Amino acid sequence: xxxxxxxxxxxxxxxxxxxxxxxxxxxxxxxxxxxxxxxxxxxxxxxxxxxxxxxxxxxxxxxxxxxxxxxxxxxxxxxxxxxxxxxxxxxxxxxxxxxxxxxxxxxxxxxxxxxxxxxxxxxxxxxxxxxxxxxxxxxxxxxxxxxxxxxxxxxxxxxxxxxxxxxxxxxxxxxxxxxxxxxxxxxxxxxxxxxxxxxxxxxxxxxxxxxxxxxxxxxxxxxxxxxxxxxxxxxxxxxxxxxxxxxxxxxxxxxxxxxxxxxxxxxxxxxxxxxxxxxxxxxxxxxxxxxxxxxxxxxxxxxxxxxxxxxxxxxxxxxxxxxxxxxxxxx
Length: 331
Ligand code: UT7
Description:
13 strands; 2 domains; 5-stranded mixed sheet; alpha/beta
């Protein structure tokens, strides 16, 4: 299938809240250990947003940095898509608050909910809308305040997640080698909704005075099962975009995967036959920030010089739904 008029990533940005929560801090809250968390996940610390710091605030800060790098004024951005499972409010969309924070009054703004895969879902949607000529540019953001949806008494989940935001500006590529998005792919398996969800707080299970003590509006996960699906789906998804982009594993300078677990990332690198030094990780510092994770990682890889102009980058993600997605970019 044709990928249409070339669209590129013109700038990236990210924002992490100041407060650091270490594994030692978690040892004081739940029955866990630094040793368990590091060997099972690779995570050493995560960031926690302030009480009055919402998903939209973090999203806008990451978005402003991406706009600055792209050299585009907020007033000139035409589309804002925020991927999040931790919106400021159920309605309106977090993207509407972001539009207001940025002063991007000319933009159409909406959210998408695809959990950890949301940023790449947003990338595919924005790419298509730009290549079809509906918009000239777009600001896509993955942003989460997961700390507000964690059961801090559940050691099987509370050690895994963190808060933050990452963003990218997309526009029509002016010339080849402009950060062009070469291929994208995404998928969903709704048979597996039970594996990872926030069961309460929606219309199926509103929080009432009778169930308020059950913490139903917090993240629940069957980790071991999710792990197996993550490895299979991310491997398949990455392989598809590599092939669609006309590339081979050895052409990939950097894989930027979803940052959930170092063991998952190791397994994917091995199955894709990509050496570990060509895989970007930062989950050690931030934990799993769901939709924000791959966006923050992409921005850090970009700004640290881990990706150089003309090199091929593969992004690959996986999350609740189950959902998965991948993208191949010529940087
Ligand atoms: O971002 C969306 C996608 N999410 C993912 O990709 C996450 C996928 N899953 C994972 O990363 C891993 O499954 C986890 C990190 C969540 C868990 O690691 P695991 O090696 O699969 O551990 P497990 O759930 O099988 O639990 C092993 C043991 C259990 O004890 P028993 O039953 O063997 O006695 C747990 O109770 O570890 C125990 N455990 C803990 N111990 C200390 C679970 N959480 C903790 C903890 N500290 N925080």
